[in-house]
Amino acid sequence: MKDVMEYKSYIGSVHFEADDEIFFGKIEAINDLIMFEGQSVQEPKKAFHDAVDDYLATCKKMGQEPNKTVKGSFNVRIGRKLRVKAYRAAL
Question: Residues 6 or more apart from 65 whose CB is under 8 A from it?
């Protein structure tokens, strides 16, 4: 099952609330809280796209740089033994 979507480099999570019979989600990995919802299977995707577009337009209107979801780098310090083990595995 896939419960994430991507649009304009933003990631949106999607969940189903059985009691309320509604799909809901939010834009992940940004500092702002942007949520969306829909009642049919198709509605959350459109709502997610609309939420991203609205977020970008609002940031532009306010002269604010929008949050980026991921930077593209992942820096982790590891010990020499693990680094050698990873290097050997890569060979």
Answer: 59
Q: Is this structure's pTM higher than 0.85?
A: no
Could you list the residue range(s) of the whole structural domain that residue 78 is in? 1-91
Using only C-alpha atoms, the chain has a radius of gyration, in whole angstroms, of: 18
Q: Which tokens hold the place of 54? A: 């609205």
pLDDT in tens, 65-82: 998 877 667 778 888 899
Tokens of 1: 């099952």
Instruction: Summarize pLDDT for 21-60 with one digit per residue, the tens.
Output: 999 999 998 888 999 999 998 899 999 999 999 999 999 9
Tell me how many domains the chain contains: 1
Q: What angle do CA 66, 67, 69 make, to 5 degrees?
A: 135
